[in-house]
Amino acid sequence: MSLNRDRFLRTTAGAVAGLAAGAADLQPGSAADDTVFLGLCCPLTGSYGADGEDLRKGYLLAIDDLNNGTGVMGQIPSLRGKKGLLGKRIVYKVADTETNPNTAVQHATEFITQNKAIMVTGGVASSEVIAMAKVAQQQKVLFMTGASGSNDTTGIDCQRYSFRSQCDAYMVAKAIAPILGKALGTKRKAIYLTPDYSYGHSLTGSMREFTEKLGWTTVADVVAPFPSPGDFSSYLTNIANSGADTFVNIEFGNDGVASTKQAAQFGILPKMKLVVPNVSTYFPDGVGAELMAGVYGTQEWYFSLADRYPLSKRFLDDFEKMYPGVVPRWTAHIAYSQLAMWADAVTRAKTFRAPDVIATLEAGKPLTLMLGPVHYRAGDHQLVRPVPVVIGKSAAQMKNRADFFQVVEIVPGEDVMQPLATTSCTLPPV
Q1: 233/4 Cα distance (integer angstroms)
Q2: Where do the domains of the chain lie?
Q3: What contacts 342, CB < 8 A, 6 or more positions away?
Q4: Residue 429 carries which DSSP code?
Q5: Contact 190, 217 (CB under 8 A)
Q6: Same fold, 35-167+305-385 and 169-299+387-415
Q7: Which of 65, 67, 149, 418 matches a 20 to 30 Å C-alpha distance to 233?
Q8: Under DSSP, is residue 354 helix (H, G, I), strand (E, B) or coil?
Q9: pLDDT digits (tens, 9 = 90+) for 141-175
């Protein structure tokens, strides 16, 4: 099935006039130039390429809406009736991070030092996000993360110049565990397939914490290398012979698809219940409804939420107009909402100056977006937002080719936030 990924890297000409990049006491874009530059870092190739392409599309829609005062941006009170930000038009470039932290750092650094970016955003793998956040902190330039599910992103690796909107692993696990206990019972024997990097260990650790509190037993944690070679045979052999009755697949992106398909070939799925705590954007497309049916997981955002939230409906309609035949996935939602939070803060702060924008975001004023009112927690820069828990539909239940899930519960963010004292976050000074 085509994922409609054209790999087109749209760029806009124009440099931002300003003084030295990274000087926190200066205001980029304040000279005669009427533009400000954003650096968009998206993994368009590598294990998370499909997710990165969806991310790219969300960014481009958001920038188009900001520049024209349209869409969801036009509904935000601080932005209503305005085009651009503080009288300046947004220009940008997109760089392919290749799902590689070293490549991501290279592009983020180039955007800051060469293009004088006032803000950099992007990433899908937590490894590349954490690496870019450290660069942004060093350069004193705002970084709005793309997708990153590791607790470390706003935990031990938290940065004053970085903000994260995706649910962290703790939030996902605390939201889904009670639903799993109610649906599957409290005496399960679980085995995990974990990608060997920050995100994988973070989500497995949080899932174990909350499912074991229910009464589940963890049989084993099978760790596979990341990036993966694509062949999970040796790891799945151990899982198949484990005696577990629940297979919790932490793998993401192309690796999640490949490992799940291979698990079916190994005869694992007929005898074990599959759980995918954090379902990547095109995972259901890749594995198909037959394997997805009855699978519990979470989605950062899902298009059927347009029936519950007016701005989700507006976002969905506008996205499909810009990209005919393409349904936005949750990485596109992250891209759009991150730029909306940033643009609202810039407008209310009345400056692009990073310390002032940070202070405005840290003040925690709720902003109503596609999931209702959301805000950043000052102590770690994690977005306080709902967690949608989903279950896979059968092919007969699907209303269209993208309708893979039923949202079974929307868990309030306030109910699942990790206590700040246990996050290991100590934000550096501005």
Answers
A1: 30
A2: 35-167+305-385, 169-299+387-415
A3: 119, 121, 142, 144, 163, 357, 361
A4: P
A5: yes
A6: yes
A7: 149
A8: helix
A9: 999 999 999 999 999 999 999 999 999 999 999 99
Statement: 35-167+305-385 belongs to CATH 2.30.40.10: no
Task: Classify residue 178 by burial, with Cβ atoms within 10 Å: 0-12, 13-18, 19+.
Answer: middle
Q: In terms of CATH architecture, what is 169-299+387-415?
A: 3-Layer(aba) Sandwich (3.40)
Is residue 104 within 8 Å of 97, Cβ to Cβ?
yes
> Exposed/middle/buried for 429, CB within 10 Å: 0-12, 13-18, 19+?
exposed
Confidence of residue 24 (pLDDT cuts 50, 70, 90): very low
> pLDDT value at position 210?
98
How does 223-253 read in b/e, with b if 16+ C-beta sit within 10 Å? bbebbbeeebeebbeebbebebbbbbbbbbb
Residue whose pair of structure tokens reads 């990073």 in the numeric block: 354
**Angstrom distances, CA of residue 112 to CA of 138, 233, 381:** 11, 42, 21
Class of residue 402 by CB neighbours under 10 A (exposed 0-12, middle 13-18, buried 19+) = middle
Per-residue pLDDT reduced to its tens digit, 274-304: 999 999 999 999 999 999 999 999 999 999 9
Q: What is the DSSP string of 67-112?
A: HHT-TTGGGSTTTTT--SBTTBEEEEEEEE-TT-HHHHHHHHHHHH
pLDDT of residue 18: 29
Q: What gap in Å lies between CA 226 and CA 193, rounded to an integer?
A: 12
Which backbone phi and psi does 161 adopt, to 5 degrees? -90, 10
What is the pTM for the complete model shown?
Answer: 0.92
β-pairing, 273-278 with 296-298?
A: parallel
The helix-helix angle for 330-349 and 49-68 (nearest 10°) equals 40
Cα–Cα distance between 289 and 395 in angstroms, integer? Answer: 5
Nearest residue to 188 via CA among 252, 274, 259, 246? 246
Within 10 Å of residue 34's Cβ, how many Cβ atoms? 13
